[in-house]
Amino acid sequence: MRNIMWTVIDSPIGPLRLVEQGGAVTAIEFSPFRDQDGRPRGPRADDDPVLMETARQLAEYFARQRTEFDLPLSPAGSAWQRDVWDQLLMIGYGETASYGQIAIRLGKTNAASRAVGHANGSNPIPIVIPCHRVIGANGTLTGYAGGIDRKQTLLELEQDALF
User: Fold this and answer.
1) Distance of CA 69 to CAs 35, 38, 65, 154, Å?
2) 112 and 83 within one domain
3) Which residues are designated catalytic?
4) Where are the alpha helices (DSSP H) in the chain?
5) What is the pLDDT of residue 36?
6) How far apart are CA 29 and CA 8, in angstroms?
7) In 10 A of CB 57, how many CB atoms?
8) Mode of pairing for the β-strands spanning 97-98 and 134-135
9) Residues 66 and 57 sit within 8 Å (Cβ to Cβ)
10) How far apart are the C-alpha atoms of 110 and 102, rounded to whole Å?
11) E strand or H helix at 7, and its extent?
12) Residues 88 and 56 in one domain
């Protein structure tokens, strides 16, 4: 098992901890960071090439100069979660989809919306895997692991960049 390495960057939505293992991004964490959650953490590595590239692409995103990420990703999750996260990657910059729309794209009925929501909330690589682009069927900003304020900020950043 390769070392887990991490760094912390500043962003318009607060400090973000970027986590890398085996040459791929495995997590982006919002502050306050949960260090007592039992997950192993290796050394801080501000000069790790994957973390440096992730930080660069996020800075471009927040500066409205990047609409797509090109990073090696390795989110840990069940097959269902990974299927949902793959669908999130297909929601374009500045666009949104409802939980029900994602369920239908996965060949399920609208009744699977709750399961989509649960997988969405378990996304370990927010922003890059754009779980903030998933909204309620009526257009409301429903739950977000990083908090509704962060979700709104991210959606507004993308909307403002389009106009």
Assistant:
1) 27, 29, 11, 15
2) yes
3) 131
4) 49-62, 79-88, 99-105, 113-121, 148-162
5) 62
6) 9
7) 19
8) parallel
9) yes
10) 9
11) strand 4-9
12) no
Q: Tell me, what's the pLDDT at 148? A: 87
**CA angle, 18 as apex, 57 and 121 as ends, to 5°?**
100
**Residue 88 banded pLDDT, cuts 50, 70, 90:** very high
Q: How many CA atoms lie within 13 A of 71 on its CB side?
A: 34
Residue 152: what residue type? Q
Predicted local confidence at residue 137, as pLDDT: 82
* 73 belongs to a structural domain: no
What's the confidence (pLDDT) of residue 40? Answer: 62
Which two three-digit tokens encode residue 75? 């989110």
C-alpha 114/C-alpha 110 separation (Å) is 9
Identify the CATH number of the domain in which residue 36 sits.
3.30.160
Domain of residue 118, residue span:
79-162
Q: Can you tell me the mean pLDDT for 49-53?
A: 97
